Amino acid sequence: MKKILKKNLSFIIRKVFNEEIQKELIIKAKLLSLKNKNLKKIKDLSQVEFKVYSQWGEDGIIDWLINKFPKIPKNFLEIGTENYQEANTRFLLINKNWDGYLIEADKLAVKDIKSQKIFWKHNLRVENEFITKDNINRVIKKIKIPKKIGLLSLDIDGIDYWILGKLSVLEPSIIICEYNSLFGHKKAITVPYKENYIRSKEHYSNLYYGASIKAFIDLMKKKNYFLIGTNSAGNNAFFLKKNIWNKAKKFVVKKKIFVSKFRESRDTKGKLTFLNKKESLNLIKNKIMIDIKSKKKIRLSKLGLLN
Hints:
- The structure is a single chain.
- This protein has eleven helices and ten strands.
- The protein is α/β, with parallel strands linked by helices and about 300 residues long.
- A hairpin with a 4-residue loop joins strand 9 and strand 10 (about 295-300).
């Protein structure tokens, strides 16, 4: 009985302590938000970065952009959220009280989200779906997401390029998508499309996923969206609808593309190996890529990225 009481008490203390930490983080983030809001011009997006719930500095970048454009729709869609504890839109939801839509493939993660206080405190809808290029528009219609939304964040660690290419039922003001910095910034390349793409199963290293930044830039131009920059971590790109970008580009001196420095390679047992860029590329050199321009399959080793 004592062990059970001790365990329950420990759980309650941790929960209360965690909630207090979260409150303090929100307060500090609000102060940073006010400071950033007064910036008339920034050198690049890294200047307004701060992290509350995002993995890197996306919270600050999103906050700065929507403060610059307060008339954009106050709703968002995030695809690929896991349990939503670490996400690009969570701070936006809490701080600005936007309407939110989440799509997540993991049933347990969706159940977790629905058990959180955030789910009843805000107008948040969660859909359990494994997104493909064939169902993306159908799922969005089923959820009844408005065509014009403020922000779309896409991060599914795999076939993001192909899904974004097929997306046609939404007109977000801001689009955030993950790119693979390992593939460089000069060539428009992506992993081949595969309906049941799971990053960790395609190669044990966890490095074979996504598309290059140039692939996304070229694709987004066709959709009338333009790059305003990336986060300093070098993995998330921010695109704005043309009418907004025309105004935003005056506020950002350089639309800088950062190269990632994080080392996320893993061995066959799933443990981090901390390989550098060249070693990481060498590990997946025999994997097949799609050259967007020629539409041909080509081994990564033949693309000259290792030079």
